[in-house]
Amino acid sequence: MRVAVRGAWVADNLQRLGEGAFYHLAYPTHQVHPQVLEKLRAGTPKYGRVEIHLLRERLALHIADAELIAVHWFPELIRVHFMIARLYVESLHTEVEWEDPDHLVLPTR
Questions:
Q1: Domain residue spans in the chain?
Q2: Is 52 exposed, middle or buried (0-12, 13-18, 19+ CB in 10 A)?
Q3: For residue range 39-54, what is the model confidence (pLDDT) as tens digits?
Q4: Given this model, what pLDDT does residue 2 score?
Q5: d(CA 54, CA 70)
Q6: How far apart, in whole angstroms, are the C-alpha atoms of residue 46 and residue 70?
Q7: For residues 52 and 45, is the Cβ–Cβ distance under 8 A?
Q8: Are 66 and 84 spatial neighbours (Cβ–Cβ below 8 Å)?
């Protein structure tokens, strides 16, 4: 799963917490790609890799990798809980095009 955040403060929080720390992000269901929603409703994935990106317009900086711990459902949103596995310093950020700006949660490529 790939997730994007728009606030640089989230990247700062991840850096402050460091690798091995737990964190969560919440997304309204309309920001979650339908393919991801379908998999989550089917009960998968229960674990796996989460790529975290900082979104700027249509470009996304890959800022961290994480391990999915749980996904919690609420009436209009999902909350993704994960353990921070790897943080990338600015010099190692990979910049990619975020191909679907309407969705902040995308399937893994």
A1: 2-106
A2: buried
A3: 888 876 667 899 999 9
A4: 95
A5: 21
A6: 7
A7: no
A8: yes
> Which of the four pLDDT bands, split at 50, 70 and 90, describes residue 109?
confident
Using a 10 angstrom Cβ sphere, with 0-12 exposed, 13-18 middle and 19 or more buried, the burial of residue 21 is middle
52-74: pLDDT as tens digits: 999 988 899 999 999 999 999 89
Q: For the chain, first and last CA: distance in Å?
A: 8
| 47 in Cβ contact with 66 (< 8 Å) | no
Question: pTM for the whole thing?
Answer: 0.90
Structure tokens at 108: 């893994």
